[in-house]
Every structure is written in structure tokens, then in C-alpha cells.
Amino acid sequence: MNFWHNIQTPNFSLAPMEDVTDTSFREIVLQTMQEGKLQLLFSEFTSVEGMCHPVGHEKVKHRLRINESEKVLLHQKNVKLIAQIWGKDPEKYYKTAQYIANETDFDGIDINMGCPVKNVVKNGCCSALIAQPDLAKEIILATKEATNLPLSVKTRIGFKQVVTEPWISHLLEMPIDALTIHGRIQKQMSDGLADWNEIAKAVQLRNKLAPNIKIIGNGDVESYQDGLQKVAQYGVDGVMIGRGIFKNPWFFHPDKVEISKEEKLALLKEHTRVFDNTWSNEKNFAILRRFFKIYTNGFPEAAALRNALMTTSNAEEVYHALEQFSRSSVR
């Protein structure tokens, strides 16, 4: 069954993000979500070149790890998990798609044609494919041929300039199930405001050319309610959340308005536990520090705790810093 065919509208998804949406953080998001408020989760970016390299494969495949505890939550909460892949060689897309279908439990595959990072783009990958429509087509066809898994693409409205109509029309001719559109061009990176009018233009093109393809809007969605408003205003089938999760880890629990200090610190501790159990010494612990600011805000002496946490180098030091903060708060 292709989940894109019967996914609810509006639907919400958490964007694929480098060193963010690994299995440990996805599990935390699943723990905090309200029933029915999140439908899709994405992996970190996974390089097809790395996956197909005899040595690089072992260094890259961790991006496709799914903890058993995450699998349980995905099933319980009826959330689909999609592997996002990137590169520029259609044959390696084919091989990587086969690996994902045969060796993992992902529900779908997403092709990254939107990442704007310069060292990726200069190699002709991700958003650089907007300027290479023929290669983009080859990549999509190769991935589709490799597997029956549902297939989607994430992209932008242009490379150096806005080209919504020709580029999105080209993608709508492809055998894909969904298209996520970030309302900026590559040149903007994350600067300026996302242009949702261009996303709405893509919806109009979809309605004419390929009514069965779902359109997901992405860019500057500040809250769950804001997402609902954008669905209503611009006609998209759903919205994808990126940086918004860093402002509020309970983003997908819109009924939870007041979050206590105790809840924030309990979630920080749980995230540390899951990260440590998952990766131990496989990943640099410093990756986890970027999340600490999510949990340490909005209460007295939060800055002092955050500073203490930024010096930690393992889970035990995090637990100790939290215990010390708890004791000082009681005094």
C-alpha cells in the first residue's frame, strides 16, 4: 500500500536535517507528539555515493539506523518514516534504493533536490539539480525502477533565480508520489522569507498536470496553527517543519501550551539517554550539545545550566550537571 495515496490532509512532517533527525531525536519527537498531529518523519541526508563506496558504506549507513524502540513508537502512533538520499549518479541511486528497500524498514524514499549548502551544490548535487533537469529526471527514473517504495522529491523554487513554473512542471511529469517545495531559491540559503505564493503556484500546476501528486509546503512555519493556516491559504496538502522544532520540541503537541522547567529537563535527560544508548562512542557527543538550547530556556538560571551543559563530553556529565542544577534550585 502506498501511504501517499491515503495520507490525511492536512498532514505534518519533520524535515530531514543533518546531524539532527537521527533515530534518537526522531524517537524524542515521537514521544512528545500529540496523537494524529504528525504523519511523516525523515532520516538525515544519506549520500548515495557514500552508500555505494566499498569503504564509505560503513561510515554512511548509520544515517539509516532505526532503533527498535523507534519502530515501536512509529507503529503505535501511525507515523511513516522516509529515507532521504542525495547525490548525482543515477546508478548509485538505483543501488541505494534497493538497499533501503531490502535491508531497512523505511516506508518510503525521498530524493534531495533542495539542500543549498555550497560544498554540496558545487559538486552538482541537491539544489544544483534544479539547473540540470535532464539529470534530475534520470535520477528519479533510476530510483523508481529500483523499488516499489513510495517516492517523493524535496526541492526549491529555483537555483539562482525563481523558476517555479518550468521546474515544478518538469517534476510533475515524473513518476513521483509527493513533492515538498521550500519557498526559497538556492542562492538565498535560509535568508529572507519563504515565498509561499510560489508554492501556491506549484499547487495550481499540480492541479492541472498531476492531481494525484501531493504537495507539501516548507519554509518559515512557526507553529502548528501557522501550518494549518498555510494549508488553508495556499492549498498545499501538508507542511514540513524544519527549524521550528528547535524553538519548541513539543511542536507536534499543539494543545500543550505551558511547558514546565521540570518537563523540559526531563526531556533533555531522556534525549541524552536515548542518544547515548544508540551511539555510545560511534558518534561525537558534541552533536548532542546543539539540542541543549532547545530544553534550557524560559526559566530562571536557564543560561547558567546551558553553559554548564555545553562543557559536557558524555552522558554522565550531563546527568551530573542536571543534578547539580536541581539541587541549587531547591535551595
TrEMBL record:
Q: Which prosthetic group or cofactor does it need?
A: FMN
Q: Where does FMN bind?
A: 84, 154, 182, 242-243
- Alphabetically list the UniProt keywords: Flavoprotein, FMN, NADP, Nucleotide-binding, Oxidoreductase, RNA-binding, tRNA processing, tRNA-binding
Q: Which InterPro entries match?
A: Aldolase_TIM (IPR013785), DUS-like_FMN-bd (IPR035587), DUS_fam (IPR001269), tRNA-dHydroUridine_Synthase_C (IPR024036)
The DUS-like FMN-binding domain is annotated at: 14-326
User: Which reactions does this protein catalyse?
Assistant: a 5,6-dihydrouridine in tRNA + NAD(+) = a uridine in tRNA + NADH + H(+); a 5,6-dihydrouridine in tRNA + NADP(+) = a uridine in tRNA + NADPH + H(+)
Q: Name one Pfam family in it.
A: Dus
What Enzyme Commission number(s) apply to this enzyme?
A: 1.3.1.-
Alphabetically, the GO molecular function entries are: flavin adenine dinucleotide binding; tRNA binding; tRNA dihydrouridine synthase activity
Please list the residues that make up the active site: 115
Q: Among its keywords, does the record have 4Fe-4S?
A: no
Give the protein's function: Catalyzes the synthesis of 5,6-dihydrouridine (D), a modified base found in the D-loop of most tRNAs, via the reduction of the C5-C6 double bond in target uridines.
What family does the database annotate?
Answer: Belongs to the dus family.
Q: What is this protein called?
A: tRNA-dihydrouridine synthase
Source organism per entry reads: Labilibaculum filiforme
Tell me the organism's taxonomic lineage: Bacteria, Pseudomonadati, Bacteroidota, Bacteroidia, Marinilabiliales
